[in-house]
Amino acid sequence: MTSSATDQRQQLRAELERMPAWLRRPIGNASELSTVQRIVKERQIHTICEEGRCPNRGECYANRTATFLLLGSVCTRACAFCQVDKGHAPMPLDPHEPDQVAESVKLLGLRYVVLTSVARDDLLDHGAGWFVTVMDTIRQVNPGTDIEVLTPDFWGGSARDCGQAERVKTVAMAKPACYNHNLETVRRLQDPVRRGAKYNRSLRVLSLVKEFDPSIPTKSGLMVGHGETEAEVIEAMQDLRGVGCDRITLGQYLRPSLAHRPVDRYWTPEEFDRLGAIARDLGFAHVRSGPLVRSSYHAGEAP
Asked: What domain range includes position 269?
């Protein structure tokens, strides 16, 4: 190992040691973790639970919930907070993925499934049709399983590209149990945190869902710890309510590696409690607010 690599490991270890006690949590039941990991590995599919090393995955697996990562494991965006692999030449779509995901849902006995994906700006429809294909296949094999989607913004990269609305409509018309699209951070920090994404563009995704089908619950998530103020977080929540967003998750950003954006500060559990209370006062029907909360945390428990 080179001295540079050793220095990086020591620096990351020191950063982890400085992490507050409330962010240190056991990963859960080892047997349940290994069962899910085996099934996923055998079928060569991806879950954001594993790709992102989510601290809640043991708990979610025990509650029969998992989040599948569609469209491969390479993202065409390069967000500063995300540890999913980035690249401009993702692999071709795996034609077996819909069947493999549906089979995994059945084997794991999942009652609630979240489908997310990498951004695929290289595809004509950015993967919208693939979401529908996977949803249809899951329903054929597991008719009692509810499906939530967590989609990219489906933006075409051009001001004259009108495809975003059609792509959102494609997924919304497939009637997910919930349509989630994460705002991730406050307006001021969008460019450094979400490279390639825009604040108003993300709000538009959630607004479009309500235009196409007002009965579909919409959800979004915010990470704190990038340098935002509480006032900015409240403003973002107000903007989400302004487009009819029904549900929200609020969690702490944790740096995946030294190559990612550093944590500005760790918000306390008491601050998360206050943010959660404010979110409820603003009218969100389902709120999850806590240091380790992630987009899909207890997703199946929403009304």
From this structure: 26-301
